Amino acid sequence: MIDIPALPAHDPDDLVESAVVSRLAGNWSNRATVKKPEPDLDDLFDHSKHDYPEALIPFAEHDVYVGLPETTKDRIRAWGWIAFNKNVMDVEQHVVNPGFSLLAQDAFDTGMGDVLAVAVTQAMVDEQYHTLMHLNASALTRRQRGWAMPERALPFSATVRRRAAAQLGAGNATEAALSALAYMTVAEISITSYLDLIEDNESIQPVNRATVKLHNRDEYCHASIADEMAVIVFEKLKSTERRFFLDGLAAGMDAFSATDFSTWEAILQSEGVAEKDRMLDDTRNDRTRRQLVQDYTGIRSLCRKLDVEDEIGIAWT
Amino acid sequence: MIDIPALPAHDPDDLVESAVVSRLAGNWSNRATVKKPEPDLDDLFDHSKHDYPEALIPFAEHDVYVGLPETTKDRIRAWGWIAFNKNVMDVEQHVVNPGFSLLAQDAFDTGMGDVLAVAVTQAMVDEQYHTLMHLNASALTRRQRGWAMPERALPFSATVRRRAAAQLGAGNATEAALSALAYMTVAEISITSYLDLIEDNESIQPVNRATVKLHNRDEYCHASIADEMAVIVFEKLKSTERRFFLDGLAAGMDAFSATDFSTWEAILQSEGVAEKDRMLDDTRNDRTRRQLVQDYTGIRSLCRKLDVEDEIGIAWT
């Protein structure tokens, strides 16, 4: 294991240290999922279980869906899982790793040196491995079910599209970097609750729950790093930059809570569900439908630490 | 271990298979360096050894360098190693992984499905881990020598800059993708010879040689994947696209063989070497100086397989 002192000996002026980041950097090789043996996925596959919970299908109670043949419902659930995996992979590649990459280059001048670079570069290895895990999980579903269902039939999720739009709309490099940091922070601090939606559901394919559980274990550590780094960076920001970062957090939370109908539309289109437009319109307009639960307790607690809980324009519930 | 059949059962029309890619996808968890325990780098560090070979310092025989105090030469050698690591990391992040990412999305319509996606996504985990390994190696040098020497004092290497320029200059998305594939192919098929320059040198820091040796082991497998994929993609290209890909290979080889004086200039500037401009001018103009050896045997053998050995405009030597 690599010993990474909290305070590098070579730079006595470098006074910024973080016990959380140093500890996580130091124990990565013992805790990271990528360092563990690979599970035998095919052995875990149970053909009798659902690939995806109905609770996460926004139109599960609509008469069009309820009236579909069981095979079509099976296929839509398999698509739901493949879309879930694609969303996780897209977020890792296009939201999380670009944000960590900025921290690795110390784009925000934290002055933490190699401890920070090592901790976030480790996290980037984890994220690339999670991409592989979720790809393996989708490949397994395709193989065991005997259905093609390629990712490329699905669009990028709303989160990735909105993060990209925010990058393009940023007025300068600093704003772009702060927006990237904010989206990454929301992703890393709230992804565990998204993953819990699968992990805690006994009716679901055990291999899917195992994939999510392994992933989740790494993310608890990443949440600590993201939380700590948000505090350290925020300290150093000027007041206009702070405002920009907080707006980015609010935009990120809004993007992550949105139900992504473009993905469901592509799935229903691909399955040739005749009345898909009526069902999707009804679902969009259904005011009684509860939001897809995204738990922002972690972000709220971060905002409390930053003393901005009431300044961010979010009605915490 | 995950069993990945060469021919996915779910798509009987999917006839493209590759025994090489399937085998490497299937044994990744047993062979990948990221799956092994981390070496204790601090234990391997030998203060009496050089951090970087003089043979890789293009002005090592120039009277300005020869006349420098030994401490300055030690510092320049440490910088040389840190710059070598930075170059490896930049190439992984900005040349190799973007190329693999195109293959993972099957941007070239190989029809290989999950086998290809899994194999290259595994390779991307490896590359992200190599970035961590080389960062750890530089962090160790900084820590053990007690010198700051931050990467951010150094520019991107010529390879990364020229690859980026080729992307910006591409006429359309297909050309951009083919250029990205070509640069990745050159990087993955010739990087082992670049790494050998350190691995085989007994006068060099053992920890540096160990880092490179571990990295190299993964790269032999990546070279096989890159070589196989170049052949499969080339088969599917139209003749204008083939020409574009071959020009990209030639440009990539040229970029990778160039000695990067901008990096050396930044290093000598940082060390306050008074006569650096005269030394660099002399070195640039020295016709007897041999090129930094980059071994293109692998690319030549690929070109022979593609039956284009004489069409690529390279004087193989």
Account of the protein in words:
Chains A, B: This is Diiron oxygenase. Chains A, B: It comes from Rhodococcus sovatensis. Chain A is mostly helical. The first copy, chain A, has one domain (17-23, 53-305): Ribonucleotide Reductase, subunit A, CATH 1.10.620. Chain A has twelve helices and no strands. The longest helix of chain A has 35 residues, at 70-104. At the A-B interface, helix 4 and helix 5 of A face helix 5 and helix 6 of B.
In short:
Two copies of one chain form a homodimer. In chain A, 65% of the residues lie in helices and 0% in strands.
The quaternary organization reads as homodimer
Looking at CATH, the homologous superfamily of chain A is Ribonucleotide Reductase, subunit A
Stated plainly, the CATH topology of chain A is called: Ribonucleotide Reductase, subunit A
Q: Kindly name the structural category of chain A.
A: mainly alpha
Cα-atom radius of gyration of chain A:
21 Å
List the defining traits of the structure above:
Ribonucleotide Reductase, subunit A; disordered N terminus; mainly alpha; homodimer
Topology, element by element:
2 copies of one chain form a homodimer.
Chain A: H1 19-31, H2 41-44, H3 63-66, H4 70-104, H5 114-145, H6 158-169, H7 173-199, H8 206-236, H9 239-257, H10 261-270, H11 276-285, H12 297-305
Helix pairs in contact in A: 1-5, 1-8, 4-5, 4-6, 4-7, 4-10, 5-8, 6-7, 7-8, 7-9, 8-12, 10-11
Pfam family, one (chains A, B): AurF
Organism (chains A, B): Rhodococcus sovatensis
InterPro entries (chains A, B): AurF/CmlI (IPR025859), RNR-like (IPR012348)
